[in-house]
């Protein structure tokens, strides 16, 4: 069984209005355990819409999505999906809301009902995996950090839920080349040491050819290419 199966997914924004926009048209995709996918395509091609579906954030016009064999397009508690599929937003500011880095990262695990010892362990492990020093950052406000550091906090908060699949929407947006290389090496580290299946949304074929093991290309709401990279 595939980890994720997307079957004939169509998403129309503002259906029946003058703003109607077909963002996804009959998209089918399977994600296997251990995949490291670069999802690329021009602006407006439907990448963010597709990955928001994988995380259960929005509901499709038609089609279905199975995660671990379970249909997530039907009603059910979102926390189940969040534990399986973690999503780091294109603008990570939107998922940082606590006063300290530690509280931000522990928010998910606390909501899972873990003991405070288990929460502590998860926070420290996640920070280490994304390269944030626990002692230096735990008391800092997420809002006073740089773009790259904010992104690391957002990633740590998502991986603290121990999802099977981690999705990063444009993880290097707004970073300079050095910040970009750092985030890419953290992602490689997460893939290798964190034992995770990863999907990275990007505009850059060049970046993804270096980083990903499989490339999926979208154009006008459809998948137009899906193949392995040579390494
Ligand atoms: P980018 O690379 O710019 O982030 P994307 O590939 O992620 O683009 P989406 O954000 O999925 O593209 O958008 C796909 C299409 O759906 C676009 O035409 C966009 O204008 C439209 N769209 C996206 N979100 C909404 C929304 N909330 N309401 C209406 N239309 C939307
Ligand atoms: Mg997008």
Automatic annotation (TrEMBL):
<keyword id="KW-1278">Translocase</keyword>
<comment type="subunit">
    <text>Forms a stable energy-coupling factor (ECF) transporter complex composed of 2 membrane-embedded substrate-binding proteins (S component), 2 ATP-binding proteins (A component) and 2 transmembrane proteins (T component).</text>
</comment>
<dbReference type="GO" id="GO:0016887">
    <property type="term" value="F:ATP hydrolysis activity"/>
</dbReference>
<feature type="domain" description="ABC transporter">
    <location>
        <begin position="4"/>
        <end position="231"/>
    </location>
</feature>
<comment type="function">
    <text>ATP-binding (A) component of a common energy-coupling factor (ECF) ABC-transporter complex.</text>
</comment>
<keyword id="KW-1003">Cell membrane</keyword>
<dbReference type="GO" id="GO:0042626">
    <property type="term" value="F:ATPase-coupled transmembrane transporter activity"/>
</dbReference>
<keyword id="KW-0813">Transport</keyword>
<keyword id="KW-0067">ATP-binding</keyword>
<protein>
    <recommendedName>
        <fullName>Energy-coupling factor transporter ATP-binding protein EcfA2</fullName>
        <ecNumber>7.-.-.-</ecNumber>
    </recommendedName>
</protein>
<dbReference type="GO" id="GO:0005524">
    <property type="term" value="F:ATP binding"/>
</dbReference>
<comment type="similarity">
    <text>Belongs to the ABC transporter superfamily. Energy-coupling factor EcfA family.</text>
</comment>
<dbReference type="GO" id="GO:0043190">
    <property type="term" value="C:ATP-binding cassette (ABC) transporter complex"/>
</dbReference>
<keyword id="KW-0472">Membrane</keyword>
<keyword id="KW-0547">Nucleotide-binding</keyword>
């Amino acid at each position: 069984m595939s980890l994720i199966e997307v079957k004939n997914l169509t998403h129309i924004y503002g259906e029946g209005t003058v703003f109607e926009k077909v963002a996804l048209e009959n998209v089918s995709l399977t994600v296997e355990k251990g995949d490291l996918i670069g999802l690329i395509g021009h602006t407006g091609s439907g990448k963010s819409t597709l990955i928001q579906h994988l995380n259960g954030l929005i509901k499709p016009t038609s089609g279905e999505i199975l995660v671990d064999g379970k249909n997530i397009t039907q009603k059910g508690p979102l926390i189940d999906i969040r534990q399986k599929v973690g999503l780091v937003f294109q603008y990570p500011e939107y998922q940082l809301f606590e006063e300290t880095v530690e509280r931000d990262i522990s928010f998910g695990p606390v909501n899972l009902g873990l003991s405070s010892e288990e929460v502590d362990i998860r926070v420290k492990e996640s920070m280490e995996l994304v390269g944030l020093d626990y002692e230096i950052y735990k008391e800092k406000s997420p809002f006073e950090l740089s773009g790259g550091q904010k992104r690391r906090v957002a990633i740590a908060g998502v991986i603290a839920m121990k999802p099977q699949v981690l999705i990063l929407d444009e993880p290097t947006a707004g970073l300079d080349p050095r910040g970009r290389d750092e985030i890419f090496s953290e992602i490689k580290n997460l893939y290798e040491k964190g034992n995770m299946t990863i999907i990275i949304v990007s505009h850059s074929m060049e970046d993804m050819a270096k980083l990903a093991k499989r490339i999926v290309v979208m154009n006008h709401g459809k998948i137009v290419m899906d193949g392995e990279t040579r390494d």
